[in-house]
Write a structure and sequence with these properties.
single chain; 329 residues; alpha/beta; D-Maltodextrin-Binding Protein, domain 2; 10-stranded mixed beta sheet; 11 helices; 10 strands; Bug_dom1; signal; BUG
């Protein structure tokens, strides 16, 4: 025989039953983060340094957070296509971006209609920085930065420098160098580093600035001669190479960088845990050895410090780019 309840008891029973059903649903709507796999966007093709760093970072973050971190590559527009996609995703902690100098600093000035702005992101952690290396053909007459400045001033327009393309990091580093000294050195843009490096080694174009990881093997083999690194401090991978500051340009500081960023609106608790997990990841031997072995300097700091760093990078490169009238290819 079914059990019946008087009216008030029946009402109370119904409320209790409804609450019992609602609790799991409410808990399901707000699970402890992370409750499922996380996606890390690497806005460049597979195979390069950026991709390698992203994959090593993803593995370490996955171990720390207890969820798999899956890398997705979406290249194009100097990192802009993948970066724009992350800017438009939910700010729930499940979409991360491997941010960098191109996609999150120089693109804003190089591209007329960047579909995203810096306000679309919260910046979690600076991972690593690496200088450009000012290199020349081994037979080129300039043995120091001072030699190069003197020669360029004596013969304005007589020398040329190669780059991987308009707006590339090497192009911008040399533009700042030229602006600092008022030098006239002709820019010769290539479609990528490969042919540019070949022509510098052959003496067709004698001067170039390369990212530390690209320059390292050529400098060690003597196929290119390094005049200076563009970071404030000497780079451990190039211990004998002076800085620009040591070469007579005080305060000259140009570095490429990688960071971890997320869509704006991501909760503070998620930001804090991601920052802690990233700091832990940067101590992992495999990631640290890769970074240091290719000339990067492992970074540290708070989300606020990284945000200030990004703002300063945007302002610095905006001034250089506007002064030189540079646009992306």
């Amino acid at each position: 025989m079914p059990i019946s309840f008087p009216g008030p008891a029946r009402t109370l029973w119904g409320l209790l039953a409804g609450l019992a059903l609602a609790l799991p649903a409410a808990q399901g709507q707000s699970p402890v983060w992370p409750a499922r796999p996380i996606k890390l966007m690497v806005p460049f093709p597979p195979g390069g340094s950026t991709d390698t760093i992203g994959r090593l970072l993803a593995g370490e973050l996955g171990q720390s957070l207890g969820q798999s971190v899956v890398v997705e590559n979406k290249a194009g527009a100097n990192g802009g296509i993948g970066t724009d996609q992350v800017a438009k995703l939910p700010a729930d902690g499940y979409s991360l971006l491997l941010s960098g100098i191109g996609s999150n600093a120089t693109n804003y000035s190089l591209q007329r209609n960047t579909p995203y702005k810096d306000a679309a992101f919260r910046h979690v952690a600076l991972l690593a920085t690496g200088p450009s290396v000012l290199v020349v053909n081994p037979q080129f007459a300039a043995r120091t930065v001072a030699d190069l400045v003197r020669m360029a001033k004596e013969r304005p327009g007589a020398y040329a420098h190669a780059s991987a393309g308009n707006g590339s990091s090497g192009h911008l580093a040399l533009e700042l160098f030229k602006q600092t000294h008022g030098l006239q050195i002709t820019h010769v843009p290539y479609k990528g580093n490969a042919q540019a490096i070949t022509d510098v080694m052959a003496g067709q174009v004698p001067i170039m600035a390369l990212n530390n990881d690209t320059a390292l093997a050529y400098v060690r083999a003597g196929r290119l001669r390094a005049l200076a690194v563009t970071s404030l401090a000497r780079n451990p991978a190039f211990p004998q190479v002076p800085t620009m500051a040591e070469s007579g340009i005080p305060g000259f500081d140009v570095v490429s960088w990688f960071g971890l960023s997320v869509p704006a609106g991501t909760p503070d608790a998620v930001i804090s845990r991601l920052a802690d997990a990233t700091a832990q990841a940067l101590q992992a031997p495999k990631l640290r050895q890769y970074l240091e072995g290719t000339g990067f300097v492992v970074a540290s700091g708070t989300p606020g410090q990284f945000s200030d760093f990004v703002s300063a990078e945007i302002a610095k490169w905006q001034a250089v780019i506007q002064r030189a009238g540079i646009t992306a290819d």
